[in-house]
Amino acid sequence: MVLGFRFARGEKVLCYHGPLLHHAICLRAKIENNRDEYFIHYTGWSP
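== Tudor-knot domain-containing protein ==
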């Protein structure tokens, strides 16, 4: 886990897409406008 971020790059996570939960992987994290933002890839979805 990277200091300051809840999720690390490469970590498996669960993410909402609409009302559904999907398995995903955190690809990168950054701080934007004083908020943590995560770029994720939903497992099984085309890149």
